[in-house]
Amino acid sequence: MKIRSKLKVRSILLPLCALLLSSATQAAPAAAKAATRNCHLPGTEDTLRCAAIPVPLDYAKPDGPGTRIHVTVAPAFREAARNDPLFVLAGGPGQAGSEVLPLLSAAFKRVRATRDIVFIDQRGTGLSGKLDCESRPEHETMSDAELEAEVRACIAKSRAPFGAYTTLAAARDLEQVRKALGYGKVNVWGGSYGTRLGQAYARAFPDSVRTLVLDGVAAPDQVIPAGGRDGNAALDKLFAQCARDAACNKAYPNLRAEFDALVKRTEAGIKLSIADPRTAAPVTFTMTGQRFLGTVHNILYSPADARRLPFLLHSAYNGRWEPFVARHNIAGDFASDGSSAMLLHLAVVCAEDVPRMTPELIEEDNALLTRPMAERIPHLCKDMKVPAVPYAAPSRIAAPALLLSGALDPVTPPRRAERAAEFMSNARHLVVENAGHGVSQLGCAPRLLREFLDKPTSKLDASCLAEIPAPTFQLGSAGPQP
């Protein structure tokens, strides 16, 4: 899963990235006291503190090879800061904490008044030994088979011990970070896959977690590639909203029929010869069903983005593919340093999710939007050769938890949070009707986060979340309606 704050994925990753187990373990040996240094990173103009925390690569072999976990600390504004910071866990799997630093001003500004905000680069992401593949502009025009061959070649070239990059290992890293920075109990904010990691940490080290804030909640039994039901539900809601909106319905009266027609056309492959939306240079490539459906699914993460989808679909249906291709190419417009770590994503999903993709689940979740990903990832997992992580029934989490869901989320809708709450003793669940994948930065949510962290067992008046408006639909090339 991705954090829509915003997760940046390339065209080679788009069909692969999705989201998001847990098991108990004994505490690992204490790490040495960490030395921090001043640092400046993209996403904020603030002077931050950075550190690299040494941890074992394999906790069963503490004296064996190690790795380092990069942490970025945004110190509390007040000198008398509390000793219960907020640990920030990004999504993916594959996204790094250092890649979501814009959340400092968007979601955590009020929290930072009295608490340090600690962004953690999970092992294998960002500045913690990123496991990734090279991204090149020509990927955007390669065939699906060529892209898959590139991924396979990247897997074969890597010498990383993929089996060491599990969610449980990442949870044990968090405990080493907490000790190394000298904190007492910590509060944990997780977004998307970060909610799985946050739950794993709370179960493995219950005495170290004061509270959990989980945004875009992954259920403990959720299987990442099997998300078709949720994706299709989000798409159906979008079509229904357009039909109810007078202006949108007038502009796109046959939206679903046009989408269905595009699915059939792209499944057969549409050879496009267009001016590159960025450079205006002539470019020729094939729009496949995998590319088309992956882009549509990605667009649904953000309601503001989703309200552009009717315009993009209608334009493509009428032969004007440039707007849709421009949106598809957004993933490639970012520097590779900020892209999600593909091999880390595969390492986690191949070990923890694919082994649970039973024939019954595949049949139940056989849905249009995610079918290409669900079919492709198991084949790539054969190359990854990671041992399966046995699924363990989740133990109960005692720490107070605030669960946030967007009603329009195509990957972690409210039903996933409701399932997660079944294994929590003190959870409250807030649903925002006009939100998608990511709530913490919207409307009054930043204030509610501070209130919850200050008094996690007190009543929380969240009625203000209903005031978050729905974005307007885009009806033409000029952009959304005012």
Total strands:
11
**Spans with pLDDT under 50 lasting ≥5 residues?**
2-32, 333-337
Number of helices: 16
Termini separation: 31 Å
What is the averaged pLDDT score? 89
Shape field: globular
Structure class: alpha/beta
Radius of gyration: 22 Å
State which percent range the strand residues make up.
5-15%
Strand order of the main beta sheet, please? 1-2-3-5-4-6-7-10-11
| Helicity level | 25-40%
Following the backbone from N to C, one meets helices and strands in this order, namely EEEEHEHHEHEHHHEEHHHHHHHEHEH
Largest sheet: 9 strands, mixed
Question: Outline of this structure?
Answer:
This protein is an alpha/beta fold.
Can you describe what's shown?
The chain is of the alpha/beta class and 482 residues long. Helices cover 34% and strands 14% of the residues. The chain contains 16 helices and eleven strands. The protein has helices at residues 103-106, 144-157, 167-180, 193-204, 228-244, 246-251, 255-268, 289-299, 303-306, 309-317, 322-329, 342-352, 359-364, 371-384, 414-421, 445-454, and strands at residues 37-39, 48-56, 66-74, 86-89, 117-120, 186-191, 209-215, 270-275, 282-287, 401-406, 427-432. The protein has a nine-stranded mixed β-sheet, with helices on both faces. The chain has a two-stranded antiparallel sheet with strand order 8-9. Helix 1 links the parallel strand 4 and strand 5. It starts with 36 loop residues before the first strand and ends in a 28-residue tail after the last helix.
